[in-house]
Amino acid sequence: MRFVVSKPSAGKARLGALYLGGGVAPPVETPALVVPTRRGLPSFIPKDLLEHLPYPDSLLLHLSPIHFMECPSTKTIKNIGGVHQMVGLQDRFFIASPSDSVESLPEYGGTNKLGATFETPYGRRLVNPKDYMEMISATGPDLWASLADEVPAWVTEKRSKLSIDRTLKWLDDCLSLDQEKGASTLGAVVGGASIENRKKCATEVSMRNVSGFWLGGFGLGENIEERSALLDAVTDILPEEKIRFVSRLGLPEEVLQGVAAGIDLFDSTYIFHLTIGGFALVFPLDILEETPEARSRNSSGNCTKINLRATIYRKDTSPIVEKCSCYTCQNHTRAYLNHLLNVHEMLAQILLEIHNTHHYLGFFRSIRRSLQQQKFELFRQRFIESRRAHLTEAIPCS
Amino acid sequence: MALQFEVMGRFNRARASKLILPHFVVQTPMFMPVGTQGTIKGLTNNQLEDIGCQIILGNTYHLALRPGAELIDELGGLHKFMNWKRALLTDSGGFQMVSLLHLADITEEGVTFQSPVDGKPMLLTPEESIQIQNKIGADIIMALDDVVRTTITGPRIEEAMYRTLRWMDRCIEAHKRPDVQNLFGIVQGGLDPVLRDICVRGLVERNLPGYAIGGLAGGEDKDSFWRVVAQCTAALPEDKPRYVMGVGYPLDIVVCSALGADMYDCVYPTRTARFGSALVPEGVLKLKHNAMANDERPIDSTCSCMVCKNYSRAYIHSLITRDAMGSQLLSYHNLSYMMRLSKDLHTSIVEGRFPEYVRGFLRTQFPKGDVPQWVCNAMEVAGIDISPCILD
To answer: Record-annotated residues binding Zn(2+) (chain A) (predicted)?
Structure first.
């Protein structure tokens, strides 16, 4: 793993290039989306359809090893050749972190000094560093975050401090069990909603022999206004040259907030939740290139997302987004998707997840372009304005 | 008539053919996956093309309810609505009378049933069925028949057969697009050879583009099943396609093809996939079974589909019944299997090695040599020597 980072302008936002897989694959440019998965594959996109997604933008996939706690056994996963081989995606890169927001939720109440607890579809599971490292070693992700004790914003100061102690101890445990001696490790930084605790944890983790950082404990009840200060407190301390991956900052505004604080990688179950709800992303991706007239038109009439279940799409023969190059928009109409959703056909979710993933990767591409053009702050401002504008209007489609 | 039917090879009663339809040229024998509501559950169009799917079936009854025939018509027909470039077939809505609608009332005029969407009584007449199917616009449309369970007996069977013939005329009369859509008739008559014979002769007189054998695969015993198929295929014209409705077990397809049938449809491969079963040459593999949890092999090592090339039984076991992906991958494999079966039947007939193929198929399905008696009986009629596959 190699990471090259630069700062195009005065702020903290950064552009980077992540080289994985021994340099055979093209670098992944950051800020980047780590595509969410369930057991190694996006919820509804199998291998052959994944190839329709933009490349190399879609090279990074998220992995939660906890998804494999029931089966197959770590021995079987290892025999098959790890997660890449098992899900048939030898040319993609997996970045692992224990929790996600769908099937492996951190459950701080059940966590104790032995290990972290997760709420899974098979019940609560306690995972200690040794178990976790066994899963990491079997699945073989390209990068992995150490086990963390993630706590929500409302816990007591005492519990928050305890979470830091445990997370640091588990990081050391993970590193001591790691055959690669930290070469693929992202050290977990936690600290709840306290700036002091966040700083303390970041300082400690920075001293460990890790290749990058995973920022946990966000999206767990802290409010969006205080979050920027928390993110800044951490990224001010972390060494510039190492990569930073944050979990659970999934909404477009949250991603922009993270980018502004100097985060490089984002996992996001936003796409999954949109898809399950029958929503398709439609926000414009070229807001910097738009003329002021087009902008005012967009901010007054356009939505961020549309609910394709709505009857107004019954006879709508246009694609979800005009000129979108994804498989769904190239082949199917809103009317067809509306029908599929109405009759509860699985193809609706397949087509929606393809479009939403494609569109969200495009959003990250726009962020990178704005950084290259040193216009990130303008991009962020316009994006948030257009979202707010639509919130204040009565929109028929949301 | 909007089709051409060219027989490319034969073995006794079995035939391999090229069927030229308005939207696509298909090869028979062929299995037609069922895409009830304008989609094959869990697969995209390009995946269906990748596995060699030539034609898919839509259910008129379901499509008429949602999104509605008017809407499909307004948006340019089902091909355009679902963006499927190859061939389509729609049924008449008649089968749902026995399968879904316990409260359906069948009279000479048509079928009255309660709409499952809003509960209102709806009347489906032969004219209306054809009108709807004309709007949907499939390459092959089916006449409305009076379907009765094969397991019942008595005068109701006879009534249904004669009514099917009378409705046939009303369907022909109502069919407004014979230049682009092929109306197939359906042979009814239960398990009674006399009634089946009357029905076949009545339909053949009407010189239709193709013929279906209906009212089967509804729980009758297998010996009765194949005898009806054998009787009908023998009596139907050589130069027209023959479609056995509702048949989808691989063994049944092999037997029916040996008896001279060309087309089949069934929800079985995709439905069984959603329940966690994979079709393999040996029969069925239950992926839900605990023995699969750590099985590192592919579903079928002789299968070259995307799923078998990439995924282990262990991985699919971890998905099945938990994630939609389990259904997606297994449906993909099962349909690939059915497409391969269709292709193998076609090729082996064209290349003059059909009996060898059938023997190989039976040996794999019945390694102990316990081929069911009905299969032996049918193969004798089909003129295929399967004695090497039978062990005592």
So the answer is: 324, 326, 329, 355
